[in-house]
Amino acid sequence: MPRATSIFLLFATSQLLFRPISSIDFVYNSNFTTTNTLLVGSATVVSPPSILTLTNETTSTIGRGLYPSRIPASSSSSSPLPFATSFIFSVSPFKNRLPGHGFAFVFLPSSDTSAAESAQHLGLLNLTNNGDPSNRIFGVEFDVFSNQEFNDINDNHVGVDVNSLTSVSSSVAGFYRDGSQFTELRLNSGDNYQAWIEFNGSAINVTMARAGSLKPVRPLINVPLNLTGVLLGDMFVGFTAATGLLVQSHRILSWSFSNSNFSLADALITRNLPSFKLRDDSVFNSKGFIAGISVGAFVLLVCVIGVVFYAVRRRRRLRLEEDGVEDWETEYWPHRVQYRNVLEATKGFAEENMIGYGGNSKVYRGVLEGKEVAVKRIAISPREGVAGTSEFLAEVSSLGRLRHKNIVGLRGWCKKGGECLILVYEYMENGSVDKRLFDCDVMLDWEERMRVIRDVASGMLYLHEGWESKVLHRDIKTSNVLLDKDMNARVGDFGLAKLQNTNKEMVSTTHVVGTAGYMAPELVKTGRASVETDVYSFGVFVLEVVCGRRPIEEGREGIVEWMWGLMERDQVVDGLDERLKVRGRFEIKEVEMVMRIGLLCVHPDPRVRPKMRQVVHILEQGRLSDDEREREGMEVSLLERMKSSYLLGTSDGRQQQHPTFLDVWNSSSHSNSFRSSSSIFLGR
Ligand SMILES: *[C@@H]1O[C@H](CO)[C@@H](O)[C@H](O)[C@H]1NC(C)=O
Ligand SMILES: *[C@@H]1O[C@H](CO)[C@@H](O)[C@H](O)[C@H]1NC(C)=O
Ligand SMILES: *[C@@H]1O[C@H](CO)[C@@H](O)[C@H](O)[C@H]1NC(C)=O
Ligand SMILES: *[C@@H]1O[C@H](CO)[C@@H](O)[C@H](O)[C@H]1NC(C)=O
Ligand SMILES: *[C@@H]1O[C@H](CO)[C@@H](O)[C@H](O)[C@H]1NC(C)=O
Ligand SMILES: *[C@@H]1O[C@H](CO)[C@@H](O)[C@H](O)[C@H]1NC(C)=O
Ligand SMILES: *[C@@H]1O[C@H](CO)[C@@H](O)[C@H](O)[C@H]1NC(C)=O
Fold first, then answer.
1. End-to-end alpha-carbon separation of the chain, Å?
2. Contact at 8 Å (CB) between 537 and 519?
């Protein structure tokens, strides 16, 4: 900078002093090119017209489109620079593919994606750095998936993210008409939407509307925001998106950005833009006269169907209104069933149809639409009220989509005024594992117990890793594992623990939710449920199934302490259910292996507990294939070590040098007696 300019700046008015040293502004009106845009990962420019396309149909990719060079994000005194940006975007599903995952407008310190993951992490952060203040990442997410782990409000929201995918503020996507009436906009409808983001140095506004509409006066999000230390130095600015198992395309049609002229958004062309709505093109591709006629016929048919559909819908709507259904409720999946049908199915909740109860809920057997179902009726405590219920239902709606052979499927739900909530599940012919363990008439034999353990492990693996977002069960126990008619064990009641905190056997302080005896020590202490606390409950479950003994029994040591004791004396096999010992049909090596898995899962240090994936591998396969070995990398070496000690009982000298496992082991701050029991892991 020439000296004269610097001197001029020094003498300028105070207002000038606080102005950015160098301001930047640019406009892309569908003129993205490979030279004026930095394309990372799956991002490409598709022309004509030249549109930034962040993702394609490939699963688990990250795509970023950024301004080609870093721009100044803070002033010389390190205070974040104000900015205003506006862009037109389209998020549209692919034909015959389940749609998922959103995108974000971002400020990033670096363009490379090594610290980011795909799917629900939006190509922005990864599992370990999420929430880390040293990330220096600011974003505004437009997300179409409800991720429990990030406290997402629903599956169609806009959120302000600072160094974390747990938004500091978020709102359902949409706009306020005339300053008050809210209209939701479905982000992944394929429609073109315009978004405006304005940051004045201490507060942020996020606004959106259909492209071509005027900017709504009232912003969707309007919150104070301190970006000191986040917007710092020179940074990349642009867009990031990701696909997971679910895919959809994310397109940016035009974009303006400025940190001096807040009206630059007006320079965007918002009309006559291409449309990316998914349509059934087979009809529109047809050529010629015959095609013309068939289109005509089709249109007529569509009209007729439309009228019929409308009439049916209208009738249904009226019926729903009768039931007091609010609009949002019909959005949820699985679908709402009618209370009167449930009444009919259970013969008015007749006592003779009751198959179980606990706390504030009762379970009835019934027949709905010709299929046998289990109906769970949960009384809503007035304290929680409707707000708590709709929150819970949002969760049920995402849980309802879970499908796995070791998970009890949710078929529907309904609500009766403010009194109770009704969940309809698949009927499980053979009752709960709890009943099968402690009722001698129908007691499970060893083979069946092994199968139950394997099934539950794979059901939990699905909850933790198989679905797009991590789902915590929060209340694994023998009474929540049910057996279907083929004796497959299925995990039920996931997520319900939150709502059932009046159950008498539940320990419930302000935040802690779970069942006494199954709760990990750190859960009791902090109230924070995690994958590791689920693994702990699974460990107790395994021990309970193998020992045929409840986790807590009056006047006896808890099952975990008791088993640790046996292990220290090298007598784990003695813990086996006495009734099985009498019958004598079990594999002693298998008993030993399962006991050790159980014990490892209830390790007091959550970091030492295995992941469900590792448990499943040990249970399902004696050996791992070479492919898996490569894929799983380090984890396998830990697994191999565990396995060699479990299965072969041999000690391998090289183990002693394994950093991860031994580091963790040695740093675990537990009693010596505990550490001496390392023999179970390292072999003898
Ligand atoms: C895109 O086109 C606009 C004119 O509509 C022009 O002002 C702008 O500089 C172009 N942007 C880039 C990045 O080339
Ligand atoms: C989609 O993006 C991926 C990752 O960049 C790339 O390898 C693949 O070829 C692209 N697929 C299509 C159909 O363009
Ligand atoms: C996440 O990113 C950080 C850098 O921010 C990196 O150190 C870490 O290894 C990454 N974690 C994973 C699991 O990829
Ligand atoms: C946000 O919008 C409100 C209401 O229109 C306005 O008063 C305020 O100045 C805006 N703030 C920013 C940071 O643009
Ligand atoms: C930024 O906007 C907020 C309202 O959105 C206002 O309260 C605040 O004073 C503004 N800050 C500056 C520096 O203009
Ligand atoms: C903003 O945050 C920084 C550090 O993160 C802090 O020093 C500063 O006081 C905060 N400013 C306001 C206005 O809260
Ligand atoms: C800000 O941008 C608008 C829209 O392009 C333009 O009309 C206006 O002249 C600009 N103002 C300044 C001060 O550059």
1. 72
2. yes
> Is 29 close to ligand 1, i.e. is its CB under 6 Å away?
yes
Task: Report the distance separating Cα 528 and Cα 515, nearest Å.
Answer: 14
Residue 316: CATH number of its domain: 3.30.200.20
The per-residue pLDDT for 410 is 82
Question: Do 220 and 321 share a domain, yes or no?
Answer: no
Ligand 6 center–CA 226 separation, angstroms: 6
Question: Is the same domain home to 514 and 420?
Answer: no
Neighbouring-strand partners of residue 96? none
Q: How many Å apart are CA 532 and CA 518, to the nearest integer?
A: 12
Question: What single letter denotes the amino acid at residue 255?
Answer: W
The rounded distance, in Å, linking the Cα atoms of 502 and 222 is: 38
- Among residues 531, 677, 501, the alpha carbon closest in space to that of 610 is found at 531
Q: Could you identify the atom of ligand 2 that is nearest to the CA of residue 63?
A: 5
Q: Identify the domain containing residue 38 by its residue range.
A: 3-267
**Are the beta carbons of 541 and 476 closer than 8 angstroms?**
yes
- Amino acid (1-letter code) at residue 170: S
**Cβ(551)–Cβ(559) under 8 Å?**
yes
Rounded Cα gap, residues 19 and 79, in angstroms: 11
407 and 331 housed in the same domain: yes
Radius of gyration for the alpha carbons in the chain, expressed in angstroms and rounded: 29
Short-list 402, 398, 387, 392, CA closest to 422: 392
672 falls within a domain:
no
Answer with the one of 366, 391, 426 that is the final residue of a domain: 426
Quick one: which ligand is closest to 121's CA? 3
Are 146 and 469 spatial neighbours (Cβ–Cβ below 8 Å)?
Answer: yes
- Distance between Cα 128 and ligand 3 center (Å): 6
Q: What's the Cα-to-Cα distance from 170 to each of 196, 308, 331, 393, rounded to whole Å?
A: 15, 39, 20, 19
Are 238 and 312 in the same domain?
no
Comparing C-alpha atoms, which of 344, 580, 553 is closest to residue 445? Answer: 580
Q: What is the pLDDT of residues 571-630, one digit of tens each?
A: 888 899 988 888 767 888 888 889 988 998 998 888 888 888 888 888 875 433 344 444
Q: Can you say whether the dihedral through the CA atoms of 402, 405, 406, 408 is positive or negative?
A: positive
Q: Tell me the per-residue pLDDT of 175-197, one tens digit each, with 9 for 90 and over.
A: 999 888 999 999 999 999 999 99
Q: Which two tokens stand for residue 109?
A: 């310190």
Residue located via tokens 């784990």: 572
Confirm if 123 and 63 have CB atoms less than 8 A apart: yes
pLDDT value at 212 more than 50: yes
Q: Evaluate whether residue 188 is within a structural domain.
A: yes
- Nearest CA to 242 out of 358, 133, 104 is that of 104
The Cα 473–Cα 496 span in angstroms is 8
Sign for the pseudo-dihedral over CA of 652, 653, 655, 656: positive
Cα 64 to chain centroid, rounded: 22
pLDDT at position 31 over 80: yes
Quote the ligand 5 centre to 20 CA distance (angstroms): 17
- Statement to judge: residues 171 and 316 lie in one domain: no
Q: Which tokens sit at 375?
A: 């109906």
- Pocket lining: 679 vs ligand 6, CB cutoff 6 Å: no
The first and second tokens of residue 502, run together, are 């009046």
Q: Report yes or no on 115 lying in a domain.
A: yes
Best CA proximity match to 620, nearest among 645, 641, 590, 599: 590
On whether the CB atoms of residues 356 and 376 are closer than 8 A, the answer is: no
458 and 564 co-located in one domain: yes
- Asked if the model's pLDDT at residue 559 lies above 50, the reply is yes
Domains held by the chain: number: 3
Q: Is 405 annotated as a binding residue?
A: no
ω before 334 within 30° of 0 (cis)?
yes
How many CA atoms lie within 13 Å of 217's alpha carbon, on the beta-carbon side? 5
